[in-house]
Amino acid sequence: MTPRERFHAVMNFQPVDRLPAMEWLCWWDKTLERWRTEGLPADLNREGVLRWFGLDVHERLWPTPRKHFPRPPLRPRSQGVIDSESDYERLVAPALAERSLNLDPLRGMAARQAAGEVIVELQVDGFFWFPREVFGVEPHLYAFYDQPELMLRINEALCEYNLAILETVCGVLTPDVLCFAEDLSYNHGPMLSREQFDRFLAPFYRRIVPRAKERGILTMVDTDGTASVTSPSVSTIVRMPRSLARGTMRR
Description:
Elements: H1 3-11, H2 29-37, H3 46-52, E1 58-61, H4 85-97, H5 104-114, E2 119-125, H6 129-135, H7 137-146, H8 148-170, E3 177-181, E4 185-186, E5 189-190, H9 194-214, E6 218-222, H10 231-237, E7 240-241
Parallel strand pairs: 1-2, 2-3, 3-6, 6-7
Antiparallel strand pairs: 4-5
């Protein structure tokens, strides 16, 4: 079996010759620096390191709108990028309207995917993750109560952005996986209630996930921890939460 055939078989509970051997998120730069002092060849790129360890190769695309807006100088990431709705209008809204994508790397990737050599994941900013990046960690949690209309406005624009990116990518190749980066949980539970999930996140998942499933794309949410409170809602919308308990993957 090819790596791609094997991956899809496992995800659909079908027999395989062996389990996929995958490092989904790969490694921090400091990890690679340490390994190079211990014998890892210095000239290996990401795929080269995967193959060095005998792992299957997957490619990740993450066309986040965050690359289109600047972070204020000396402002920590935890404080976000806005202090007001006018800041959103000036900094973030234009980034969400910018949906251009360099398709050249995708074309080479498409041929390798068709041959079964690689698994392709399209990762997008989720509807908890992105507002947190915009508001900042603590202001984001207050915004569920203090600025609900702005929260919904941000997620509406993000939904349109993600839909446009999905259509653009599918014009070149069909990803094997669509993953929503959320990190909405820790090991003892999520940072929002089911009611908040159903109001602020679920409506936008319900617009994107069916479009992915129509194309046979697996859908996942990277929760980063147990989604015990929200998991009934998550599981009915997407195929699987990726981290129901930190460090695990299950359907």
